[in-house]
Here is the input.
Amino acid sequence: MAKELTSRSENYSQWYNDLVVKADLAENSAVRGSMVIKPYGYAIWEKMQRILDDKFKETGHENAYFPLFIPKSFFSKEADHVEGFAKECAVVTHYRLKNDEKGGVVVDPEAKLEEELIVRPTSETIIWDTYRKWVQSYRDLPLLINQWANVVRWEMRTRLFLRTSEFLWQEGHTAHASRKEAVEEAETILKLYADFAENYMGMPVLQGVKSASERFAGAIETYCIEAMMQDGKALQAGTSHFLGQNFAKAFDVKYLTKENKLEYVWATSWGVSTRLIGALIMAHSDDNGLVLPPKLAPIQVVIVPIYRKDEQLEAITEKADEITKALRAKGISVKYDKRDTHKPGFKFAEWEMKGVPVRLAIGPRDLENGTVEVARRDTLEKDTLRMENLDEKIENLLEKIQDNIFQKALSFRESHTYKVDSWDEFKEKIEAGGFVWAHWDGTAKTEQKIKEETKATIRLIPTDGEKESGKCVYSGNPSERRVAFAKSY
Amino acid sequence: MAKELTSRSENYSQWYNDLVVKADLAENSAVRGSMVIKPYGYAIWEKMQRILDDKFKETGHENAYFPLFIPKSFFSKEADHVEGFAKECAVVTHYRLKNDEKGGVVVDPEAKLEEELIVRPTSETIIWDTYRKWVQSYRDLPLLINQWANVVRWEMRTRLFLRTSEFLWQEGHTAHASRKEAVEEAETILKLYADFAENYMGMPVLQGVKSASERFAGAIETYCIEAMMQDGKALQAGTSHFLGQNFAKAFDVKYLTKENKLEYVWATSWGVSTRLIGALIMAHSDDNGLVLPPKLAPIQVVIVPIYRKDEQLEAITEKADEITKALRAKGISVKYDKRDTHKPGFKFAEWEMKGVPVRLAIGPRDLENGTVEVARRDTLEKDTLRMENLDEKIENLLEKIQDNIFQKALSFRESHTYKVDSWDEFKEKIEAGGFVWAHWDGTAKTEQKIKEETKATIRLIPTDGEKESGKCVYSGNPSERRVAFAKSY
Here is the structure.
């Protein structure tokens, strides 16, 4: 362990790759593009799941489970969807293996499927095929359903958490009696995602909608939250789609209105994935390792004993157990690291690498003085605190850390946000990294040109911002509002 | 809705199929053999998951996630495993689709995988391939890891929950420094499963080990719990395998002992699946619908208002809200069903079908008298209770129902358990249904003959029972102990 991370300034990309492995979060598997999520990384995902799942349920959603496999023909039913998703997919063609002469196994050519099955890249098609049976009248609406699942999109260039062929996510799929209600649902979920990103992940996000070319395949409108990473690149952290009646029409899902008329149902879908763990890492961590916001840290406090003799350890352990009990009573997760196989310095570095928000160190002198050494992971500051009301002090400190992590990320974003009106400055700021707010003439052609010349894409078009007349930074044509450009993950 | 179930006596199998659909638990999907788990069914699974997950964590296990796909060659590495699992599998051969001339999609022949990928039927191979990297010394042991995942085993004849091509499960995979520790782990988990089955599912289970021919492919010993369904068939409800060093040898996983010697690691694996929902249904339900033990019921109490006029509803709703609040404060889940689209009789039948343990009905006269009508789902008994301390009364009633459901299932099993010494009686009892304890000569040949002639299999060999000398019920050869035979799911 110890500090063997590549530094961010030296090679940001390598820093990230090193960190994911050294903090024991995930690793590549024997299957190209598929990762193994290790227990420490999975514990972060479980925390995310629990918080999001509670929020989904509070807003009236229920969980269900739909099949992993989707008949190939389903993908051709929605014209835009087929373009976007029926491409880089895992295709199941056979359902049996048999032994060969050499003691191995081969695919049994007799067991070929009549119609190939696609491992779901997303589930709109199979779910809307099901909703046809579930929806008859307005009484059956709204359907507010979510599923936690694995999905597969064959990727040629993969990176742990950020882009893997298989990933874990949640996908919400809702059905409504009116356009208005469906749009409200998509917006409600966007706000829920933004709240999660900011108040739990400590990661400020911009909210808005995608340009037509960046929309989800089959959506009328794609709402998104966008975060800024420490290298000045944007990362899309969640999307919520208003799908109009596209899928209802493709899968013939109609309902009888109160007025006894048959109408197509309105739809939304929305999701966040294990990609959020990648975002969490890149938003806050430093050259010493992971920095985790307390609300998502699997271990919030680690206690390390400092001792030479076994009697000292015994006395320290007694005190550590007392502290542990008091902290746990406040719902704080604590680990007491009394491994005798490693020195304190090694342990300090290890827990720093793993991003534990608060470290307590207790030595014989602390016992004498009634004190404890407290180290903050976010600022790396140390302090000596008196034992009295330690649980409350730590509770306050964790809140302070949660807040500081957010404020730090917010300051970073603000110092990397630019309003730009000239093409030269646009190119310069995009190259340096950050969100560049600029006028755009609204055409896909200009958007494409800008992308080709700078690699920047429109991250979002604000929905709540004021209009401001101006000229497109690229074409000089008139524009009604600025949009946010950035290079992105 | 209403009582449209086929009765158990008329056609048990049809009763089950009807019930799964009418209680809104699951349905077949467009993909042959894959089910859709509907919100009400999934809510039961979520309850099961939460309870089991807590128990796994209390016993030191952590969750992780391993790839869905397994390279085909991995299956040939463990000789017994390949026989058992590399057969009816979903095989991924391609990774891309392309548009055809007719607006559809076809598999791109250019995008053929060099080595086919198998959709995991179980994950021993990919996990032990990973453990090779994780285990170097005794300090890395034990590894106590579980994953919640979907798996696929291609099935020709499927039934909702009981046998589907895709199902959800948890699979634990542990690595240990000694045979003793691994055996203890397998036994610990068996006890954990038995505790869950009996004290949460209300389903009494027998515990023991499988005969060699019924063992998991690659296991040295398969521990199992077996439950009795209402048609007298046994259902295997969970298995825990001691795998010896088989997978460590197949995937070359060695560790350095304290004495600095290289040794192969010892293994276990264990799992329960959504099949448990099928068991839960068949163990307790009746001709009116589902009967759920309170500890696994998504809704524990439903309140139905009985009224003619809107003013009456208002007054009842006030009281219902008060009761709801008091019950929720005790951690009891409550639904107040004030739909104005349905009559009370319809609602009663619907909640009976869905197995809600306790139904409260409140009418204007109840308000005057300070009473409420309480109906138990398990016994269908009704009672009128005074409102005072209603929360405590309901809490006690739920405990009583939980206990009664278990006792009823236990009585059923006891009245369908036989000690048999003659072949004629054996055939007769097996045909009638139940557990038949009989002597067996220990040979696979006899086991096979008995299966051919009666369809009965050895469900388990007890590990804690006393030995008893006797003669094999089929061959007459000497036997050391009785084993449990039954027809099974």
In short: The domain at 417-486 of chain B is CATH 3.30.110.30 (Translation Initiation Factor IF3).
